[in-house]
Write a structure and sequence with these properties.
CATH topology of the largest domain: Rossmann fold
Strand content: 15-25%
Largest sheet: 10 strands, mixed
Number of strands: 10
Structural class: alpha/beta
Oligomer: single chain
Order of helices and strands: EHEHHEHEHEEHEHEHEHHE
Distance between the termini: 30 Å
CATH superfamily of the largest domain: HUPs
């Protein structure tokens, strides 16, 4: 049985991502682990005033959150009524990224699915800070679902790869598994800054990728642009792809892509789910 971690802060965009996840895996036996992470900064003075003098801040936070998670779990079971799905809920009081990584390790989760929402006042900000930090530092694949994205079949993927980086079957497994669920088309996109031919190293890595994903319905495409994310997203829109996948070359890659000033220059939202796969070999 596949285990999927679903972080939630009870916001509408996180609940939307949960519905998206459940719909995506409708026909797949799954255990969904709901995770709510309470951080100190979210505990405000109004909460203090409602507590008895003998109450522990920690106990009050955890017990209130646990009650909310039990209610959410019950609502999801009633709403979706899928015999193939199991639910459990967790509450943690920790750094968000650490809590997610620990929960994935403890429960052997193969994928994290969460909602995205830009910061208030920044209309062209694509992701909230928690989502960006998780995509950068997660030890596990992350599927980020935009706030207004409705449940859809992921029938075509736009996958951005850099052939400088050797990839393994394990690292590409999240994409292979998701594509196999719908026999999806997989467009493997290499964005180059010039028209120089691929080096022997790049050709070797491309050939290895082709062998790894040979069971998928895939096509290899080369685009020329100085802006990787913009080129891939534009391709996704023009070719009616349902989702985008990228690999995280550890730390600096995603940070460079998602800087707010670069996003504002970019000028439009990502409206498709985005899969980020951590690359251990980079």
């Amino acid at each position: 049985m596949k285990t999927i971690l679903l972080p939630t802060d009870f916001s509408q965009n996180s609940l939307n991502a949960i519905d998206f996840a459940i719909a995506t895996f409708t026909g797949v036996p799954c255990r969904f682990v709901l995770l709510h992470v309470h951080m100190t900064a979210s505990f405000v003075s109004d909460d203090l005033m409602t507590m008895g003098s003998s109450a522990s801040i920690y106990q009050t936070l955890i017990e209130t959150s646990k009650a909310s998670m039990r209610q959410l779990e019950s609502r999801l079971i009633d709403k979706h009524n899928n015999k193939l799905h199991e639910f459990m809920s967790l509450v943690d009081y920790d750094n968000f990224v650490d809590a997610v990584n620990q929960a994935c390790k403890l429960h052997d989760a193969s994928l994290v699915i969460l909602g995205t929402k830009g910061d208030s006042g920044l209309e062209k900000s694509i992701f909230g800070s928690n989502t960006v930090h998780l995509m950068e530092k997660s030890d596990y694949p992350v599927l980020a679902v935009p706030e207004k994205c409705k449940p859809i079949l992921l029938n075509r993927w736009a996958v951005g790869l850099d052939y400088e980086i050797p990839l393994t079957k394990e690292e590409l497994k999240p994409l292979i598994d998701l594509a196999a669920m719908t026999n999806a088309l997989v467009d493997v996109i290499c964005v180059k800054q010039n028209e120089d031919p691929l080096t022997p190293k790049q050709l070797k890595n491309k050939s290895k990728v082709a062998k790894i994903i040979e069971q998928t319905n895939s096509e290899f495409i080369t685009l020329f642009s100085q802006k990787v994310l913009e080129a891939i997203t534009k391709y996704c829109v023009e070719h009616h792809c349902d989702a985008i996948a990228l690999v995280n070359k550890r730390r600096n890659f995603l940070h460079r892509l998602f800087l707010k000033d670069e996003i504002q220059k970019f000028g439009y939202h990502i409206s498709k789910p985005l899969l980020i796969m951590p690359i251990k070999s980079a």
